[in-house]
Write a structure and sequence with these properties.
Strand order of the largest sheet: 11-12-7-13
Shape: elongated
CATH topology of the largest domain: Outer Surface Protein A, domain 3
Order of helices and strands: EEEEEEHEEEEEEHE
Structural class: alpha+beta
Radius of gyration: 22 Å
CATH class of the largest domain: Alpha Beta
Number of domains: 2
Length: 180
């Protein structure tokens, strides 16, 4: 049985929960998130906390549904955030019409639009990109789309990488040892 599924999910003030046709709709100040509720799990609201209980003993969806509900509640109250950095000579990014436009050394600019209604992209400066939103999946998917446009090069560490990501730089080709 899932230990995560046994923990109650407290609803902060300003967050509402509604169940419709196997989908939980969690609304809050940051937006709205829909969570699919499996048919072998039941969700109940008691004393301002959501509790998830399995209808079938040993169901694998018990913990998954509880974790998705917890992420939705946290997202609509606090929000999710991913930060990316650009490394490379001349690499830069800017925001135009809600989408990020990047110059990553190619012959053309690359544009990535946010995934999801409540996801936003901002650029505090030319080499940093911040993706924010209430749905953890949409924030992660948007950040992954940006990351995939130019993954970091292991030899020069050029490219797009997540803030705080450890980069292991490989040694390039060495000169011949003089043996013939």
């Amino acid at each position: 049985m899932s230990r995560i599924g046994l923990k109650p999910i407290t609803l902060p003030s300003g967050v509402s929960y509604e169940l419709k046709d196997g989908t939980a709709i969690v609304k809050g100040p940051k937006g709205e998130v829909n969570v699919h509720i499996s048919s072998d799990v039941s969700v109940s609201l008691t004393d301002g906390a959501l509790s998830v209980s399995p209808l079938v003993e040993g169901t694998p969806n018990h913990g998954t549904v509880a974790a998705n509900l917890h992420n939705a509640v946290k997202g609509v109250s606090e929000g999710w955030k991913k930060e990316l950095e650009l490394n490379g000579t001349g690499y830069r990014a800017s925001v135009k019409n809600g989408a990020v436009v990047m110059f990553l050394g190619y012959s053309h600019n690359i544009t990535v639009a946010p995934v999801g209604k409540y996801t936003t992209i901002s650029c505090p400066d030319e080499t940093h990109i911040v993706v924010e939103g209430c749905d953890k999946q949409h924030v992660g998917q948007t950040a992954a789309l940006i990351y995939d446009k130019h993954r970091p090069d292991p030899y020069g560490n050029k490219g797009v990488h997540y803030k705080g990501q450890k980069m292991i730089k490989k040694v390039g080709k060495r000169a011949a040892t003089g043996k013939k």
